[in-house]
Write a structure and sequence with these properties.
- It is a single chain.
- The protein is α+β, with helices and mostly antiparallel strands.
- Helices cover about 20% and strands about 45% of the residues.
- It is built from two helices and eight strands, in the order βαββββαβββ.
- It has an eight-stranded mixed beta sheet with strand order 2-3-4-1-5-8-7-6, with helices on one face.
- Strand 7 and strand 8 form a beta hairpin.
- The chain is globular.
- The two termini are about 30 Å apart.
- The model has no long low-confidence stretch (mean pLDDT about 95).
């Protein structure tokens, strides 16, 4: 397994006011465009493949994220191999690998031996449609 960097970041914001303020900062000041939006979630992708996700508490996955509301994930070359390695090292895999072929992107979460939630993600060339 090769780790290419920390390329996924998730921030949980306490309320709609803080969520709106951070979304405004991301769009109006940083010039980011949401690539996906759902109730309580805004996802931004940057040209280098970095992902920033903003959450309201009701938009979080069932296992939640970490105290303080921040989680991050590692870009790996092979998400299946990385998942097996994390599990063998005592990590708890959370859910399945989620794939988005049209984006060439896959991710999954895991709970590390420290009890915090982290992510694994893989970026390949998008599938041709």
């Amino acid at each position: 397994m090769q780790v290419d960097g920390i390329t996924w970041h998730a921030v949980t914001l306490e309320d709609e006011t803080k969520f709106a303020a951070m979304k405004k900062l991301a769009t109006e000041t940083l010039g980011l465009t949401p690539m996906m939006e759902m109730p309580g979630v805004s996802v931004f992708s940057m040209p280098n493949g970095t992902i920033l996700e903003l959450y309201l508490p009701e938009g979080l996955p069932p296992f939640g994220y970490n105290e303080g509301g921040v989680a991050f994930g590692f870009r790996v070359d092979d998400i299946e191999a990385a998942s097996r390695a994390v599990e063998a090292a005592g990590g708890e895999l959370l859910g399945q690998i989620n794939r988005f072929p049209e984006m060439g992107y896959a991710f999954r979460h895991f709970r590390g031996p420290d009890g915090r939630v982290y992510g694994l993600n893989e970026q390949k060339a998008p599938a041709e449609g």
